[in-house]
Amino acid sequence: MDKPLYEGSFAVVGGSFDNAGEVSSNIKSILKQIGLPNSVVRRASLVAYESEINIVSYARKGMIRLHVVPNIVMIEAIDEGQGIPDVDLAMQPGWSTATDKIREMGFGAGMGLCNIKSFSDIFQISSEVGKGTYLKMIIKTNGSA
Amino acid sequence: MTLREIKELLDAEVLIGEDQLDMEVKTAFVADLMSDVLAFATADSLLITGLTNPQVVRTADVLDIAAVMMGRGKRPSPETFQLAEELNIPILTTKYILFEIAGRLYSKGIKGCIEKVDSK
Q1: Which residues of chain A have pLDDT under 50?
Q2: For testing the chain A interface, which of B42, B51, B55 should be mutated: the one with the most A CBs within 10 Å?
Q3: What CATH number is attached to the domain comprising B101?
Q4: Does residue A118 lie in a domain region?
Q5: What ipTM is given for this predicted complex?
């Protein structure tokens, strides 16, 4: 694999609704600084943001890892939490187990994972009930970094 | 339209971004559901919403939204205000309801970010 242009991880605290999005804003600045095109920065920040909202909303704690090499931006969201019993169901648009608190923020309508999938070039999800959830998102930059 | 013209048209109050009123806006998106904003709104658009929490500003930041217009007389929470100042995202507020905001802007030539969603 190519030498990374950036490698780092950011902690996300479950339930910290007031700070939700801070990590994604951070990631966005880093990607902009690297000089990636706006469209790539936008998609990467978007999938990071939806993932961050998910960790804040449903997990005890987690982290978002950012890995940038010349051809791809890879974002991993790893959490320790309740996990997802039926991933296929969770991927269906509109399926949600959101609390009122989550809905008050303007989320929780069962769109998060669908958005993540549709804005990623490659998307992988695995989850274990009672343990946590792992998301891997890859956005191709076509060598623009 | 410039933000200044939009402000005048909607009799809006500028809470943050007085220095950015010459910014040109051509498109807009209306929603209270941030996931839908993330899915469909495009960069440099006006985000029209009734939501007032910091996630509105985070969403605007992620998408490079030009400015946020809060309808129905809504005002940002203190946390939202602070974050918008930090990220330099203009926030305006108007007493018009969202339907009126959209209608008035549309009649002046502002278009939606997209016309309709792809059928799937």
Answers
A1: none
A2: B55
A3: 3.40.1390.20
A4: yes
A5: 0.87
